[in-house]
Records
---
Amino acid sequence: MAIRNKTVLSVTLLAFLVFPLVSWAQEKADDAEKDADQKEEKKESVVDNEVELGLYYLSDDSFRYGKYSGLTDEGVYALVDFKLEKRPAWNSGDLTRWRFQGWRAGLNSRRFVFDFSQQGKQRFRFDYRQIPNNRFSNGLTPYMGLGGDELRMPVGWEIAEGSNNTRGFINLNDYLRPYEIKTDRKSITLDYDLKISESWDMAIGFRHENRDGVRNTFGIIGSNMTSTRSAELIAPVNWQTDNLNLMFNYSNGRARFGIGMYASFFNNDDTALQFQNAFGKVGNWEKGVAYPDGFGQMALEPENSYVQFKAYGGFVFNARTRLTADLSWGTMKQDDAFLPYTINPALRVREDLPRLDADAKIDTLFFSTRLTSRLTKRLNLVVNYRYDDRDNKTPREAYRYIGGDSEDQKPTAESRINLPYSYTRHTADALLNWSVARGFSLKGGVEWNDYSRDYAEVEDSNEWAWLAGARLASWENLSASLDYRHSDRDVDEYIGNLPFQESYLPGVLPEDAFQNHPLQRKYNLTDRERDEWRFRLDWFPTREFNIGVTGSNWTDDYDEGYFGLNEAEAYSWSVDFGYRPAEKVFLSFFYTHENWDASQSNRQIFSFDPDTILREDRNWFADSEDEVDTFNFHAGVENLGAQENFTFGFDYTYSYVESVINVTGGDFIETAPLPALKNKLRTWVVYGQMDINERSAVTLRAESGKLTVDDFALDHVTQDTMTNILSLGQPTQDYDLWLISASWKYLF
Amino acid sequence: MIRARLVLLAFLFFTFSGAMVMAAEEAAEAEAEYSRGSRMCLACHGEGRKQDAHEILLSRMAVTADSRTPMSDENHGCESCHGPSKAHTKRASDGSRPAPAITFGPDEPAELKNGQCLACHDNGSRFHWMGSMHDIQQTACVDCHDLHVENDPVLAVESQPEVCYTCHAEQRAQFMRQSRHPVQAASEATSHIGLMTCTDCHKPHGSAGEASLVQNTINETCYECHAEKRGPFVFEHQPVREDCSTCHQSHGSNYAPLLNGRGPWLCQQCHNAWNHPSMAYSGTGIPPQGASPQVLASQCLNCHNQVHGSNHPSGPGLTR
């Protein structure tokens, strides 16, 4: 994989060097000829540079606030933004322009873009991005070796005699220490476009990304609900991704076509994460599994590749009719060497792995075509068809697995066979748009979606939809639209135990053996009726005032009498308002309300026992409802004062989410209310800028941010709250802070 | 025979000369409708005027050395886009000023306005424009693009999301949720300017795949930045292979990481296997009443952490 990547990298870099140089040399020769003609009216190019230098001050530590911003610790940070630009005067005869722009250069959320072009001839773009992703810093773990691929318990780790859960960790608190869970994503993108001739052009793009840091995950020891113990671990993230795009395009008169490729390679410096078992012996664990001898091992994300070839073409039959088509075919591959069934030498492995790696491979084929035609002056037709095929050719094998590094190898009969899922999807739609009168149109259409899958509960599903809409454009300064869509998904026979049966050797399980309850229906694989509508209304009574209202709703209905998701509904509406009471003053406001509802039902079952399966008093129901309110108000004044050199403004944002999950059940089911999940974010910003002269200005800015989160899954949960899981125990991350910045902007 | 040749000659002569006259008339007619070019337009639409348009001279559209631009000598300046508008340069007898042929105002059909743009820009990323979602919604190019400025806001990384939010109010609200991609929210709050933009995932001019995504499918688009999820793995999770949005909301969610719902109930919408997957989890599972591993911390992922697929030969339960 590494060699392949180096080759791709070398070829790409070479291409980026060679193409611009050759092209530049050609351009120089051409330019010399043109110079004489253009000398007469040549004007100087425009140099337009801008640098903003200053300081940020963050009033409090907040890992959460710095999640993507890089402003994490209390203190002072450099504020550096800049734009260096040279562009040709419009009538200078020059075609060359470049721009080098940087945002937040003083923070680790920086971005730099360099853009060079000879207009109509070639363009080169360099883009560097750094995106921090702070997950949390308030988790605590006793594990040593953090950041690496082998985690051990600290020397002196003690477990109470006979204990096999977190209650037995005698000196847990003595060893707990914090570790920041975060990753840093750094990417470099290089794009080069070259106009080869009047009709041909080429585009090549390359992106290299490094993602470093750590993430939290869980390592388990044990093979079933009662014997399994889990520990929240810190896994290394040392990932690199290389993406390459290359396209040659032809465009001339009526015909357009292109051919190219896309390649993507993912590398991971770590293949596995080993961890020492923190727990004392559980009843059915083999010897050597418990602390201190026992270790667990999990597979980390395997290296993989995807190479795809692409072609497209289009033909303009006449001004009214056009046909386009796209074709892509490729292969996803993954052949990382397998880890052994277990890392514990004490466990008996009677049978070797059936193969050394998965030799996983998926062939992809995608085809789409679109016909657009203006049937009459007022009637437009759009017809689409897409074919999407994922043919998973990963070999199927029976794996005599070992349950959670805790037991001897399973008997052959309990081997599990991998299920390399494939699917084929056809979608088609036809839409008619009728311009009834100037500014008023109606539309209507049908859509069809067909899925064929293997190793799934349903082999084939079929969905038909019809849609209608009306649009009014600018009638008495009013624009409006209304759209409705109804779809009906119909699936083949639902065989709930098919994937379960297919994952075992033939004849091992009774024919009626199942894993999910026979009445369970997976919501993406069952009959469904969906109704959707949306509307939009915009009113511009004057140039200074506008108001808009938008709304949408969708409702999903699933077949009654089955378990799983029974009904889901979402609606949202927004109001927007903009007003300029005076030339220098502007106000804007928006409010959005969203509501999500989902109702599901299940039945508590403990075995294949028919009595258990049929007992309705074990039914339970969960209704989830999310209410989201989002509000923003902005006011600003520009060019105030005698010298018109003051600008200031105010911005207020409020977002509040309340999610309620209500679980109820039959007589057998014991439930208790759950507290609401709440998120409240409030931000307000005051800013002001004073222009000192034509070239420089000072800006002051104060931002107050407050986040409060209530989450029952994290609040009041410490490392040993769960008896069978040693967690990091991080509470929710609230903040209440100020970010103040002062900067000086200079134009030159 | 001679008469026939004379008749044919006469026919050809009249046909040819008639065609020449008609062509000359058409040319004269067309020429008559254009004004004297951009300088004349900018005399009234220059800097400081009510409807100023002078900044177009700072844009790529005005580079005269590029023969394709409206301002090149081979074209008609402002009228290359606004249409022949000589009448607009004079007042009518009633004192009013006739509008340019095409104003790109809200009362003009999108098809008319877009036709002007597509006359030159009907290639490259616009290959899929005809029949795309924005085309069907009768979005005009000028609804998103501002040509009379040096830097079109929708093409600038720092201002692009704000342009998209103008119509996409739902997504605007979703980007203010706690779990979201780092696209700058619609507020003045510092932090995410330019980290991600809408066009990192979407092609607003249309694409071959659904939702105008940059790749053919939802999953292929996600793999652009999340290639570690691509696999293929030896033990797969069926909906993951098919469609990331079965479990995730791409713009923003109340449930990290970008999930459609909270575990274990989200997982239980599909999984009702005997024993713990079928249990009713509620307030009895949280402190002080209890401490259910299915409800606390990462819920089902406390054990089934390889939910995107496992490459461990002992990982059929997606735990390793």
---
Amino acid sequence: MKLLSDLFNVQEVWAHCDIPCGIYETNTLLVSAQTVIRMVEVMEAIPMDKPSLKDRNNFIRCVKVKEGNAQLCEEQLITLWADFFRPEHLEKFPDLHDKVWKAVKLASDNRQDVSMEKAKELMFACLAVADMFDKVKVEPKDNLAGSVSDNPDAPKKKFLG
Amino acid sequence: MKLFPFSMFVVRGRSMIPDYKPGDYVVTFNWTDVRAGDVVIFKLNGKNHIKRVQKKLKDIVEVAGDNEKESSRVAPVRRADIIGRVVLLY
């Protein structure tokens, strides 16, 4: 196999989901962060002293939703960081890496913990990333609601429909 | 028709896990048509991508990643942009 590698000019190929859509947005990120806050609110209101079966059921459901939305926050942040933000954005936002890293860490913390303070910190961290996004996004050609950026490198023609 | 019948690539990214992991090498056969189920490599915006063919239309092929957690979108690719079909993984 080394012989094959030596004979061929081996190129990189990307197994990544960013190809054809080329559309980025922060609505999902912010709604997920808000959901984490809401779930912590609900969980803190559930009585821990002699909880009923219904209380326990609700608590578990809230844990599941909090976990899922905190994970979604993480995924959205990483997608924006890896696919949307470019080297030229670093010149405009020198602390871009730090802000995204901090937000990703907070998303992970919120999965492990039930803390209104950490949930709010996550929200502020996501807002900071969304703010950078809003300052450099490209207005989409179609009328898409919300904070959406079109990919300036996306194919100019629509292939289907 | 493409000049070389075979090309070799190294995989980056996780959207084709578990079959194709980051660091895997693949060889494509470029002198062939593609069918649904084939894993293909295509060029888009100057970058090579690896995905599985979901549906083949006239001049368009719909592709998607195997790893739904990483890549749940089905998207169109022009037939002319496809470099080849993966025939070897190591």
